[in-house]
Amino acid sequence: MVHPDLTGPPGQGAPPPAGGATPGRGARLRRRARSLGGILLSLALTLLGLLLVTFVIGRVMPIDPVLKVVGERATQAQYDAAFQAMGLDKPIWQQFLRYMAEVLQGDFGRSISTGHPVAQDLRRVFPATVELATLGTLIGVCVGVPLGVVAAARRGGWIDQIARVVALVGYSMPIFWLGLMGLLLFYGILGWVGGPGRQGIIYDGMVPTVTGLILVDSLVAGDWAAFRDAFSHIVLPASLLGYFSLAYISRMTRSFMLEQLSAEYVVTARVKGLSERRVVWGHAFRNILVPLITVIALSFGSLLEGSVLTEIVFSWPGIGQYITKALLAGDMNAVLGGTVVVGTCFVALNLLSDILYRLLDPRAT
Amino acid sequence: MTETTRAWLLSDAPQTRRQARLGAIYQGWLTFRANRLAMVGLAILVLLVLVAAFAPWIAPQNPYAQNLAERLKPPSAQHWLGTDALGRDILSRLIHGSRVTLFIVGTVALIAPVIGLFVGTVAGFAGGWVDQVLMRITDIFLAFPKLILALAFVAALGPGIGNAVLALAITSWPPYARLARAETLTIRNADYIAAARLQGAGPLRLLIGHVWPLCVSSLIVRVALDMAGIILSAAGLGFLGLGAQPPMPEWGAMISDGRTYILDFWWVAAMPGMAIFVVSLAFNLLGDGLRDVLDPKGGRE
After folding, report:
1. Which residues of A touch B241 (CB under 8 A)?
2. Nearest CA in chain B to A336
3. Which candidate, A16, A69, A171, B223, has a CA 20 to 30 Å from the CA of A190?
4. Are A62 and B158 inside 8 Å of each other by CB?
5. Chain A interface, mutation test: which of B37, B132, B232, B283, most A Cβ atoms within 10 Å?
């Protein structure tokens, strides 16, 4: 679970305005460009670190990568040829440079278990995860934000108590277990939702792929039956992820709101005789929008990751299931490729929230 | 407790250092005790430790004993929580599994904060390029999705409980480093550090004797709040088949065993999940209580 204080609003270390006079437009732009440059530099370093770590993990692996390629029965000459072709005879830093060059070109090698290039596999499985995580985040935002706001506005009231319990249970519940119990209840006993998987068998491959998101694709194709089927499959895993994201989002919203509601401008607004609704939603809420965006971006990132277990439970053909299956098969190229892609998304989301923060909050330059 | 001890502990003017220290602990305990939910959490965890300690005597049956004639039996007087696919008593397996859970949580909660404390205080205290390098490394680890990184580590090292612990520890130290660094930055220029330095204390002595003790309490709070997350991650690794290997009665792996039978024999997967939930809930409650005691600024929003 992402903890609030670590991931808290970036840009806190923003330098105070230089000089006594109001800085000119040029100076501000320059400073902004410099801070953007700093972000990009740290981004590049982080990505470099990501590649370095995956590279090291790949080298630590006790499985002989050459044997995996040539097979057990290869002659010594074949083995040596493959060994050289893979560049394993070169010094380790050259191997790393080669790995980096390959990854930057989108080449993660070939997956041993599926036989396809890893990049091609990832293009296939990634939309499934994105679809799930997006819907989950949407649920988390639509429920979590109002819940957090109301909990803060009526502090100590029954909604606040419920919000507290909801969050506490969310932080303590093993997600894969809740998924199993959900399947048992809503699929096994009540039969309200579709079972595991992304689509019913009869709809499999019926919808032409446009975006890879089946909900969108079936709408584009105007195929209502396929849409309903896909929806009945996604609703349970997405609500599950949504629950975990709402536990986090509602807590964060609540504490942001409490901070705003104790500010002096809120007192002023009340003294002015504004209705409580206007004070809460019109004044205090508008001021938490910026940090809230950061929270939502981070929560989306953690859902991309949290979906690993959910995907296993619901046999969801996404990146989490892909990585796990590859892992159990000792298919290192696929594992590392998947790790790099998820890690990059994580970094990109952090960057995005950082940039949004800087753009939207005039105080952070 | 007698009235005199109580008065001695709560004295405004402690006579000795020991009295002051015990008094502070006692006041913390009073604050903690006032939080009823935190007490519930503490009670559950004490129970868990007792159960783990006396597992072989409490468990009604051998957790490894298979009895195929009794497989997948629902909860009954003989098997309170039913039996699994190999006819093993689920209650006994849960009881023995508490040892595995405590082992994982305890080890990770010991290793990760220590690495974090070391990295963070050294970075904060040394400053300059050491700080830059260490924090850059920390950021890289922090940028990784935790579970995926742990998966990749376990993939490289091979599945098993030891490697799962290692992977969890490697992935969970960065937040502690950040925290310890922030604490160090606030105290490195404090007068008492300057005083100790004037007395001739070297950097190592300052770090160990004067900086670490002040970082520990916020780290403890953080660890207590993270415990639940560690349990859930460990159970997740077990569920994926990457943590404890069969036949070890690990709770996450037990859920994974029950997954195949979920629609017909729900109890096989349901019971271990309940156990995980109760224990991580207890850790969360305890963590909240400890935060109120040890970190009065951050608590009680």
Report:
1. 328
2. B152
3. A171
4. yes
5. B232
Measured distance between the N- and C-terminal CA atoms of chain A, rounded to whole angstroms: 29
DSSP letter assigned to residue B81? T
Helix (H) or strand (E) holding A64: none
Collect all residues with Cβ–Cβ distance below 8 Å to A290 and sequence separation of at least 6.
A9, A356, A357, A360, A361
d(Cα A261, Cα B266) in Å, to the nearest integer? Answer: 47
CA distance B200 to B217: 26
Catalogue the long-range contacts made by B128-136 (C-beta closer than 8 Å, 24 or more residues apart): B131/B181, B134/B177, B135/B177, B135/B178, B135/B181, B136/A42, B136/A45, B136/A49
pLDDT in tens, A149-183: 999 998 888 999 999 999 999 989 998 999 999 98
Burial of A96 (0-12, 13-18, 19+ CB in 10 A): middle
Cross-chain residue pair B143–A60, CB shorter than 8 Å: no
Per-residue model confidence as pLDDT tens digits over A265-301: 988 988 988 888 888 888 889 888 888 988 898 888 8
Q: Which CA distances in Å does A161 have to A152, A268, B27? A: 11, 28, 28
User: How far A331 CA sits from the closest chain B CA (Å)?
Assistant: 9
Give which of B140, B183, B286 to mutate to test A binding, by max A Cβ within 10 Å: B140
ipTM of the complex: 0.84
